[in-house]
Amino acid sequence: MKTRVVNHSLMDQVYPLLRDLIIKGELKPGYRIIEMDVAKKFGVSQGPVREALSQLQKEGFVIRHRNKGTFVSNLSRQDTRDIYELREVIEEFALSKPYRCCGIT
User: Fold this and answer.
1) pTM
2) How far apart are CA 21 and CA 80, in angstroms?
3) Could you report the per-residue pLDDT of 39-81, keeping only the tens digit for each?
4) Is residue 51 packed enough to be buried (19+ CB in 10 Å), middle (13-18) or exposed (0-12)?
């Protein structure tokens, strides 16, 4: 019997939601993302939002300007297609691997 314990941090929950909003174009390039507003929308504190935005910045989805805020990067249609294609390959690969944790296979 396989049992999976899923323990996602709040950042792990906020990050994909924001990333998908950007990829789908619901947050347009140049849109200013305000941590407090996102925190209220998702019912979390600003800490997980800040962490998620840091991860999104590392991946090029947002740009942070000191004393000005965080803004959605300008992703082209090709960038968006490339992201979805890469996700498809990675997710298929991940699903093809057996789950291993704590010696359980």
Assistant:
1) 0.68
2) 12
3) 999 999 999 999 999 999 998 899 999 989 999 998 766 777 7
4) middle
